[in-house]
Amino acid sequence: MGYRERTRALDDAARVWKGGYRPYDLVKEASIAVGVITLLAVVLAFLFSSPDERPLTIKGWAHSDPADFVTTALSELDGTSVTASYGPPYNNASDGQHIAFIHLAKWLGVAHPINAPLDYVINPLRSIQGNSTLQQAVATYTQAPAKQQAAWTTAYGKGLAKVNDSVTGVHSLTSASYGPLPTMMDNLLTLAQYGGLDGNLLSNRQFYSTDYTKILMFLADSGFLAARAQSEHLLGTQWGMMNETGSFPGQSWLWLYTFWYQIKPFSTSANADVLVMAIMGVLSVAFILIPFIPGVRDLPRRIPVYKLIWKEHYRSS
């Protein structure tokens, strides 16, 4: 900008306004807005109450769907569950999600370590005192070669797939080809149904036990949680990120995040989360930089919507 242009801009800024004036009480307007919003919040809270559902627990899961619980526990034991093979930040079973050569999960490492066989099966069973038969079964399994362990879990899994969804059906699996697994899984199911597994997975060295990561990951590996999420329209394929339980209104402002999960390649990609976050990061930066992007920053001036909003002002000026 040259000297003349700068001088003209300063003159325009210093020029006395000769148009019309209209009184405007900012405090009054703000008070009215706060009052209306407060009234709406109180009325809507009274009409709709809280959308929160009772939290899902491992105890409730073990009672409602014992076969699914044991099936999931078996997948944790043999390392085939999603959690066991997830990678960072839970374990080193894989490189984790990435974009091309950018492996953020791998670079950041394991922040919330989860050893699925030990955390979900072996250690909880070892915590049960006074049951020598169970402890012998655990020792037999842990000391067996990996090939023998795989043979037991494969045979037990096939048998589990044939029983009905009941505690009696799970306890009926007693074949010798299952090795120590019937004893281990029967006791694990009993521990879960009495609530002991919930407490076991919450135990940590912190004063407040608020880290529910292990419980949530265990539930996430099950068919129980997926079925509940589907019934509440909370799955990713149901735009679940912006939904609320029941018929309550959800987080509509998250529509753009969940939109990407509905289309390919994101809906079928194993790296969907990191890809969506990268796209939203780029879009967010672009939004912040709008005042500095030529052409885009001039759109409000070129599309005179402001004249419709302030039509009375422009009519009187």
Number of strands: 0
The main pleated sheet reads as: none
Q: Oligomer, anyone?
A: single chain
3D shape:
elongated
Topology order in helix (H) and strand (E) letters: HHHHHHHHHHHHHHHHHH
The poorly predicted ranges are: none
**Radius of gyration in whole Å, from Cα?**
30 Å
Keywords:
single chain; 317 residues; mainly alpha; 18 helices
Compile the SSE list and pairings:
Elements: H1 3-14, H2 26-48, H3 58-64, H4 66-77, H5 104-108, H6 116-126, H7 132-143, H8 146-160, H9 167-171, H10 181-193, H11 196-202, H12 213-220, H13 223-231, H14 255-260, H15 272-288, H16 299-302, H17 305-309, H18 311-316
Helix pairs in contact: 3-4, 3-10, 4-6, 7-10
Q: How would you describe the overall organization of this protein?
A:
With 317 residues, the chain is mainly alpha-helical. The protein has 18 helices and no strands. It has a domain of 167 residues.
